[in-house]
Amino acid sequence: MPVEDQIGKARILIESLPYMRRFEGKTFVIKYGGHAMVEESLKVSFVKDVILMRQVGIKPVVVHGGGPQIGQTMTRMGLKPQFVDGLRVTDQDTINVVEMVLAGKVNKDIVSLINLNGGRAVGLSGKDGHTIQARKRQHVRQGPELQSPEIIDLGWVGDVEKIDTTLLDLLSQSTLIPVVAPVGVGESGETYNINADSVAGALAVALRAEKLILLTDVIGVKDKNGQLISELNQEQVRRLMQQEVITGGMIPKVETCINARKGGVDSTHIIDGRIEHALLLEVFTDQGVGTCVR
User: Is the pLDDT at 15 greater than 80, yes or no?
Assistant: First the structure.
């Protein structure tokens, strides 16, 4: 390798040093989903980033999605996925599949991959230790075609009611990396399917995290010309939503970021999980690769 390339690598390490010092002992909550959970090279890139974070003293907590995997399993079982306003209708058969896929297959695959690459991970769902206590979601549909708002029963779809950090606090005292499936528990022990972004945001607030990082399949928040916006404050986010520059699936993500900021999380990030080592580039370099909502 040419000396110039070796010097370039050394400069990158030097650039990352102040960030390593600053974030040592801090908790990062990372929502893992999209292409980063599907493509093999991105999966390995992600777990190595998380392992390195833990090695330098950061305490990562991974919250994962798994919508495509749920859909594939339902199809194989002869169940037809149904959605209302982008939300999965979750009857009793569906919630059984959701729990099996998220808390079983997907969760344990991530844990295994972290362990195989030199880390130490443990998998849990929100039902373990009553970590994620949930309530049934009341979904209201509104629109010009409706004479009045319509309440839609989505079945076993929930919202976060309360986070009990006891189990995660214990794990944070070790070198273990918690991997959390977004499955919550109701007051009578019933199971709820909860949006993974919402779970990650609620956990970040409850754990007093330094950062909340959402991995997506887009480069971040873009302006009206389609260019990446590297940094936003809450007022700018609201203005872009009013101008319909921020639309669709990006709206719940930026709202999760705003709620986390209001709850005391220092900074929130929406980054492109399709970029190899996106986590390290966002956290340990001056430029970053996504959008930071402060």
Answer: yes
